[in-house]
Amino acid sequence: MSLYDIPESEIRIELEDPVPFGGKKKRELLIAAALGAPFGTGDPVDLALLSAASKKEDLRHYEQLAFTPLEPQLARSVARVRRVDSGEEVMIARGEVDGILYLCHPDEATRYRAEMQAEMRMTHGFRALGIGRGSVAPDGSERWEFLGYIPVRATRRKSRRIEEPAEFRYVPVWDWQLRVLHWFSVFLILILSATGLLMGSGRLVYGGAEGFTNYLSWLRLVHFVAGWLLLCAAILRIAGLFLASNQFQRWYALFPVRMRDLKNLVQVALNYLFCRFDRPPHYIGHNPLQQVAYTAIFGVGLLALFTGFALYALYDPGNLVFRYFVMFDDLVGVQYVRLVHQFVMWIFLAFIPIHVYLSVRADTVEREGALSSIVSGGRWCRKGTHFEDA
Amino acid sequence: MNESMDGGWSGGEGFRDYLARRGVTRRDFLSFCGRMAVLFGAASLPGGGRAFAKDVAERLSGAKRPSVIYLQLQECTGCVESLLRSGSSPVDRLVLEQISLDYNELLMAPSGTAAEEVLKEAEGRPHLLLVNGSVPLNADGAYCTIGGDSALNVLKRAAQKASAVIAVGACAEYGCVQAASPNLTGAVGVSDVITDRPVVNISGCPPIAETITATLTYYLAYGHPPPLDGNGRPLFAYGQRIHDKCPRRASFDAGQFADSFDDDNARQGHCLYRLGCKGPATFAPCATVEWNMGQSFPIKAGHPCLGCTERHFYDRMTPFYDRLPGFMVPGLGVEATANTIGIAAVAASVGGVAVHSAATVIAKKRAKKARPETLPLAVLGDTEKREEQDKKT
User: Fold this and answer.
1) How far apart are CA B262 and CA B67, in angstroms?
2) Which of B238, B270, B303 is the last residue of a domain?
């Protein structure tokens, strides 16, 4: 419609409960309002009325004989409608409540009440669409009665994607191998952080250990074993970057590659920053911001492994492999390797709350299913959503 | 030193013959070789320490008296002081006395022109070159001159005909204190100047005397330097960390740490890890050989290791009494530990999450409450023009 300079998909029409007068029923009022629409109409309000009314009665029982469009002076449109089976003809007038009341001449009380309500109750942009029904007597005189009004509001649709009912489809995202690796690494990183903190400070141990308990030796053993296992996990993950058949797990999912993804990176960052909900872009795998963040965390994890083994190497500096780590220690200084190793742990510990928060948020607020996908492997995706990486 | 006529080790005589002439019994000699074998870590070799000790004894018996130039450049003479205390047995002393120490600033009798001439003469013969102290390169070497010439030139001349170069002490290895940031004199180690042949670094500030004599013994016996690690240090002494052989290791494993000097745990001899001990990162034989004829070493005496055998320990092992170096917090000028910064980062992350989730809740409520933009209704006769007029009025 030329009246709106915005795409039709963004117009949102809301109908509130019809307000019938003179003992009429809501259903009757709604059907009358729908019949008052011009045949073949494209107006969003008409379409909304037709859709609502067609749930109450089959409108194919009626046919439209004539339609007088709305004139500015009279402020009403009139349709002549005939019921196919009985041949009964009626006229339906629609327009501002004032105009319809003027046409119908109801009794003073009805008129007063209708005017009052249409004025007082119409808040939040709702407006009253008055409906009148008329019949033509054999002598040609018209008799009109006031049926009531329907509150109507047309608004620009805000993106309330998550609030709308929609159909979903289940999309598998992550292989079970990847999920196992993820949770295994989580477990290891927590173990490594806890034992590392205890070893580095000795504070919790201090005073607790009477006599020779080998407490710290056990901590070190656990730390070293977990470190080796994390190395295994890292090797498997890196191998997966090149071997996985899943496109969301391969190496090109590490970085935003296409120009559009780079633009989306900014968009996603702004969405997060300003708490915007369900704005595009949508990704099945990781969005560009996630890609950058997770790749950075991979890098931090590798740094943790590297510095960890550089420190571990000191126990056997002549070893075929460890000698190169010891050379690295000599280059940087062991104490600084230690410092980096400890700081890396804090990066992880600071990352975890943000990571968990954003995943939970993606599940609950944005309904993107990021959290469930790392548990079950798949996501429920809204049908019809455009995914950038599908 | 001048050769003593009363039975010094003369050039053509074998070491064993000389010892016999001096009244050192074969038993003493073999026990010295045995101790050296232990120092060299031969126990882990195939055949065990006994075979190695025999080997050393055989080779040492035939060793010929070498000429030694011992230069002292930019340093504090602490290394020579340490070397002079290598007196744990008569044989050690003999090794020291009876190498032909032709030139050494601290110990030699001649001075001035006489000393210079001795040096010039000794330089012309094949000799063993021991160096103490670093070589300052800035200001054309003006920071250390000997006999009117820069340390750089003195070293280069002395090294020309040297059959082996041994850098004794941290200064000669890389510059030690004077090479610490900002290194005003541009001090470098011997191996930075003598680049055409391997330099043996006997690390430490100062090194333990026995590691110096042991390296000399090895050289006398075999005619080539002992196996070295990546920093040119003899593996027999610098192959393991102090931590690996520390007498307080049991306390470390048990998690018993001294919290401050002179607290209860310190008195009980618990681990000095939390007082900044660098033993876990320091390769040195302190815990096994110990100092001053095996009397003690810092950790045993209750002081944490400073890591003086590691390169750049003044820059990298500091602060000496803390576990880890601190961070300068940019903008604040405050030094903080990694843990302080880490806890702050985690708190900031949790706080950020809290703020962001609160903002999300508020934004959601607002979005619900917000009055959407109302559009005109064609069914009520609105036109765009009328809408615009409404807006204007």
Assistant:
1) 49
2) B238
* Whether residues B344 and B198 fall in one domain: no
Assign B210 a pLDDT band (cuts: 50, 70, 90).
confident
Residue A374 lies in domain: 164-382
Residue B58 in any domain: the answer is no
- Which chain A residues are closer than 8 Å to B359 by Cβ? 275
Residues 324-383 of B with CB under 8 A from A: 324-325, 338-339, 341-343, 345-346, 348-350, 352-353, 356-357, 359-360, 362-364, 367, 370-383
Q: How many domains does one find in chain A?
A: 2
A318 vs B235: CB contact, 8 Å cut-off?
yes
Q: pLDDT tens-digit profile of A92-140? A: 888 888 888 888 888 888 888 888 888 777 777 788 888 888 887 777 7
Chain A from 177 to 206: CB within 8 A of any B CB: 200-202, 205-206
Residues A263, A127 within the same domain: no
Would an 8 Å CB–CB cutoff place A67 in contact with chain B?
Answer: no
Cα B337 to Cα A68, A204, A347, B305: the distances in Å are 83, 18, 14, 20
Confidence of residue B350 (pLDDT cuts 50, 70, 90): very high
Contact A45 B363 (CB under 8 A): no
Whether A151 and A87 map to the same domain: the answer is yes
Both A207 and A261 in a single domain?
yes
Q: Are both B91 and B229 inside the same structural domain? A: yes
Give residue A2's pLDDT: 46
Separation CA B150–CA B135 (nearest Å) = 9
Interchain contact A326–B (C-beta under 8 A): yes
Residue A3 domain-assigned (yes or no) = no
Q: Does any domain span residue A337?
A: yes
SS3 B374: strand
Residues B159, B185, single domain; the answer is: yes
Cβ within 8 Å, pair B230-A350: no
Instruction: Looking at the structure, tell me whether residues A173 and A152 fall in a common domain.
Output: no
What percentage of residues in chain A have a pLDDT greater than 70?
90
pLDDT, tens digit (0-9, with 9 covering 90-100), for A318-330: 889 998 999 999 8
**CB-based contact (8 Å) between B238 and chain A?**
no
CA atoms within 13 A on the CB side of B92: 20
pLDDT exceeds 80 at position B304? yes
One domain for residues A130 and A234:
no
The β-bridge partners of B334 are: B329
| A275 reaches B (C-beta below 8 A) | yes
Q: How far apart are CA A257 and CA A285, in angstroms?
A: 14
- Which residue shows structure tokens 């200084």? A333
ipTM summary value: 0.77
Report cis status (omega within 30 of 0) of the bond before B182.
yes
A 10 A CB-CB count for A166 gives: 13
Alpha helices in chain A (DSSP H): 26-35, 44-54, 97-104, 108-120, 176-201, 215-243, 259-273, 288-312, 322-332, 334-364, 370-376
From B389's Cα to the closest Cα of chain A, the distance in A is 14
Q: Within this chain, do residues B233 and B247 fall inside the same structural domain, yes or no?
A: no
